Amino acid sequence: MASQQPTPKHHDETALIALEQALKDACQVLKAHDPDRDWAKDAEVQQALAEKLMDLVDNGVKDPRELCRRLLESFELEAPHSIRMGEG
Fold first, then answer.
1. Structure confidence at residue 7 (pLDDT)
2. Is the residue at 64 inside a domain?
3. 72: which of 7, 26, 29, 86 is 20 to 30 A away, CA to CA?
4. Which residue has the higher pLDDT, 72 or 78?
């Protein structure tokens, strides 16, 4: 018996543009917080960012500033060279 794969969700152009802008803005904030870290090559962080953004868009958030704000809230920015995901 074949396993059931979740049906991929399709987002409109407005949501995709908002996702792209929010990710770009969030990466700029993260880079400013820790300029020595290569955020683009941190697969764990990139995966966490993507999952959180998709969850927010799936729940109706489409404003890029709001997406970025909520995305960054999910990170606990600590000492200059560390970052970890929050609980919510």
1. 46
2. yes
3. 7
4. 72
44 inside domain: yes
The residue among 33, 64, 65, 30 whose CA lies nearest residue 46 is 30
74 near 85, Cβ under 8 Å? yes
| Residue 71 to residue 7: CA distance in whole angstroms | 24
Q: Which domain holds residue 54?
A: 13-85
pLDDT band at 10 (very low <50, low <70, confident <90, very high): low
Kindly state whether residue 7 falls inside one of the protein's structural domains: no
- Count: domains in the chain: 1
Closest C-alpha among 51, 47, 53 to residue 69? 53
d(CA 14, CA 50): 17
Q: How many residues does the chain have?
A: 88
Residue 2 lies in a domain: no
